[in-house]
Design goal:
The protein is built from 2 helices and 7 strands; from the N terminus they run ββαβββββα. The chain has one domain (2-110): Nuclear Transport Factor 2, Chain: A. The protein has helices at residues 14-25, 92-110, and strands at 2-5, 9-12, 33-35, 38-44, 49-58, 68-79, 82-89. β4 (38-44) and β5 form a beta hairpin. It is elongated, with a radius of gyration of 16 Å. With 111 residues, the chain is α+β, with helices and mostly antiparallel strands. Helices cover 28% and strands 43% of the residues.
Length: 111
């Protein structure tokens, strides 16, 4: 299994991917991303690929406002209910701006 995350690098093997994702997503403020709704998807059966747009949505800061930014993901099917490749494609600047706005709103609500 290969996981390509353009900001953090390429991870090879399920254990390395798990360690890498945990190292990224368990730290603040990334641990505030709690929902990942899929906006749309395309399945290419011939290639065994799935492409989708997913929202990286932050936890409600306390006022019901939604803070999210999208990325595109490519999955490649390996057979036997397993994928062999994932690549997340996004522009980090809008994600950074969204997170900054979320943290500012959360701090504002906390007083």
């Amino acid at each position: 299994m290969t996981y390509v995350e353009h900001q953090y690098g390429t991870f090879q093997g399920r254990d390395a991917i798990r360690r890498g994702i945990d190292g990224i997503m368990l730290k603040p403020p990334n641990n505030e991303m709690t929902e990942f709704p899929v906006d749309w998807y395309i399945i290419d059966e011939q290639r065994g690929w799935i492409v989708f747009r997913i929202w990286n949505r932050m936890r409600d800061p306390g006022d019901g406002s939604v803070h999210q930014e999208a990325n595109f993901t490519l999955l490649k099917y390996a057979g036997d209910m397993q994928f062999c490749y994932q690549e997340d494609i996004y522009n980090p600047k809008p994600v950074e701006d969204m997170v900054r706005g979320y943290l500012a709103r959360k701090q504002e609500l906390a007083g």
